[in-house]
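README, section 4: Worked example with a bound small molecule

Sections 1 through 3 covered apo chains. Here we extend the same pipeline to holo records, where the ligand is supplied as SMILES alongside the sequence. The molecule in this example is zinc ion. Nothing else about the input changes; the structure line simply encodes the ligand pose together with the chain.
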Amino acid sequence: MVCQCCGMPLEDATTSREPDGAFNEEYCKWCYTDGNFVYSDQKELTDFLVAHMANENWPPEQARAYFEAELPKLAHWKQKKQ
Ligand SMILES: [Zn+2]
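The generated complex, written as structure tokens:
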């Protein structure tokens, strides 16, 4: 299972919860908090991911190209396009 917003693998510790405490197994806790989505658009999320995931072995331009290719495949962003 991966987060349908950012693509990160989901484990119990990283899975989001609804405001009533129930797991929401579609999203990680960073993308979906207290019943709300943290990122309003794909660019905002891409900027965040590039800033945090790029490193000396994975330059920001490569990271950005990767997320720009992969994020549109996730359910959350597919829904947004419709
Ligand atoms: Zn996520």
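What to look for in the output: The chain has one domain: 15-81. Helices lie at 42-53, 60-70, 75-81.

Section 5 describes how to batch many such records.
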